[in-house]
Each structure stands twice: as C-alpha cells, then as structure tokens.
Amino acid sequence: MTYGIGDTPLIRANGLEEKLGIDELYLKLEGHNPTGTHKDRLAIQHVDDAIVRNYDTITVGSCGNYAHSMSFVARKTDLECNIFTPKKYSSHLVDKMKENGAEVFRVVGGYEEAVEESRRMAEKNGWYDANPGRKNTPISLVAYADISEEIQDHLEEKPVTLSVSVGNGTTIAGIHLGYRLLWRKKRVEGIPKMIAASSLGNNAIIETIRQGSRDILELPPDSLNETEINEPLLNWRSLDGQEAVNAIYDTDGTAIGLTDEEIVHYYDMLKQEGIDSIPCSCTALGALDKYLDENKVEGKHVVVITSGKFEEK
After folding, report:
1. Is residue 263 over pLDDT 70?
2. 180 and 70, same structural domain?
3. Is 250 in contact with 176 (CB distance < 8 Å)?
4. What is residue 93's predicted lDDT score, i.e. its pLDDT?
5. The total number of structural domains that make up the chain
6. Residue 1 lies in a domain
7. Which of 79, 104, 135 is the last residue of a domain?
8. Which pairs from 84-92 meet CB under 8 Å and 24+ separation?
9. What's the chain's average pLDDT?
10. Are 10 and 155 within 8 A, CB to CB?
C-alpha cells in the first residue's frame, strides 16, 4: 500500500468487552486510512490497475465515500477522475471530490442509477470502469484481502468470528478471500465465521441469508426505507452479493440486520470508548453482540469498523 493506505490499527476493546460480556474483542479501525474509510483500499487497487493498463481516465458511481477515495488516489497520479453521484445527495464529500480535481456529474435516481451511468459513460468514452461487480469483482476482492493479512500479523491466530458491515458485500468477500489464501499457505488453522451486518430489511445480502437462499436475491427497489442513518447500507441489488453469501455459508457464518435505533445505540457505545465512526459502520459491532447473545462462543472476536478512528480522551 502507498499514500498511507492500509496497515490500519487493530486495538483491544477492553471497555466494550466488559459492557458486552465478550472474552476478547478487537476493533480493526479502517478510519485511519487517509480519507477516513476502508474504500481507500479499493480505490488504490483500481487506480493501479488502470495505470498498468494505460488508461488516462477513471470513473465510478458512488454516494460518497468510494468517490472521495477515488478522487484522492487519482489526484496522486496522472489519471483524470469522473464521478457520478445521485443528484438528491448533498454530501460535503462532493466538495472534497472537486478539491481533489475530480469532475462530478449529478445523476437522477439513486446509487444503482449512478453506477449504471458511470458504466455507460466508461464504455462510450474508453474510461476505466472502477465500479463494483461484474469483471471488477476479482480486483476488488484482492483489495480487501490485505485486511486479513494485517489481522493475522497482529493476532498470530485466526479469530473465532469476524464481523463487518455490508452494502454491496465486497469487503466481507475480500476478507474471506484473504483468510482462504492464508489457510492455503498454512498460516492459519481454519477461517473465522463471517458475520455480515446491515440495515434490517434494506439489504439484499441480509435478506438472502435470512430466507435461507444460497443464491443472492434482489429486493423490490421500492421496498427500501432510506434514512440518513442507514443510507450507505441500502442495496436492493448487492453488486458483489453472491461472493458475500458464499463467504457466509463457507464459514458457517450469518447475516444480521439492525434497526436505526439499534445502529445509533452501538454508535453511542463506540463513541463512549473513543471511537469516532459513521453510524452505519457500527452495525458490525451490533451484529456481533446479537450473534453472541444467541451463540455462546468463546475466543477472539474481530469487528471491522469501516470508518472508525480512535481519539484519545
């Protein structure tokens, strides 16, 4: 990794262990990446690929964090960066994208429409398409496989569970790939149970597992209940959802949805421990807590906080 991306802290959460009754709890704080989220890992992987393949322009459809990461990494290179984002979103990150030199196009509709317009323009103009899913899935999964390596280097053994928030499912699938590779190299004995966390009733991965399907389902687009709290988690069509579902079943894991009230509860809990995070990231902690309430599993547990940063009190 370069530009300060990767090698994020893994900290022992002693205070949360006591509050939640967990033996050993570790938080992987992806907010220590330069733009404050795990998306920096994905952006640099695709920028590197675009440069190797001699593209001069890269594009992505995003509601915020991934586009911000892409504009940051592209600014470090000679790549032009074109972002497509829903017109209805008025995120402060749009200004940061522009400050990084990206051109931002506003699209009528939601996240899926922004991705489709980005893909359409990439094909039309010969730009590098950095959107999740389809042909980009292998590259995207490799981007997050490094998280497994970093956790293994720190703990020197596999955790019993690994919990992560999901939207498209790319992150949890990439971490699963990373552990698979470690297992094949005989650096770990087995793979942790993968726990996917998201907004209750608003994510295709969660609903697929809840319904017992091994094939990713699509939700009716008009069935989603979008709020300021759950917006980054909403996906009626998770673009890397099948890979995420495969990871969950492969490890005898699970997928758990949380209400907005529950998300805020775990956000406040992390805040009290000095972790400043976007609320949707906190679903990973909530899902682990719910899982351990029903499954008394002892050992080390890792929660990936995709935007969390530790602040000294």
Report:
1. yes
2. no
3. yes
4. 87
5. 2
6. no
7. 135
8. 84/59, 84/60, 84/114, 84/115, 84/117, 84/118, 84/121, 85/61, 85/114, 86/110, 86/111, 86/113, 86/114, 89/63, 89/64, 91/63, 91/64
9. 94
10. yes
Nearest-angstrom CA–CA distance, 49 and 65: 20
Residue 4 falls inside a structural domain: no
Measured in whole angstroms, how far is the alpha carbon of residue 150 from the centre of its chain? 16
Name the pLDDT band for 313 (thresholds 50, 70, 90): low
Q: How much is the average pLDDT of 184-207?
A: 97
Structural domain of residue 83, as residue ranges? 39-135
Joined tokens for residue 165: 């928030």
Of 85, 115, 135, the one marking the end of a domain is 135
Confidence of residue 312 (pLDDT cuts 50, 70, 90): low
Task: Write out pLDDT tens, residues 62-119.
Answer: 988 999 999 999 999 989 999 999 988 767 889 999 999 999 999 998 888 999 999 9
Average pLDDT over residues 12-17: 96
Q: What percent of the chain is predicted at pLDDT more than 90?
A: 89
Looking at the fold, whether 177 and 95 belong to one and the same domain comes out as no
- pLDDT exceeds 80 at position 122: yes
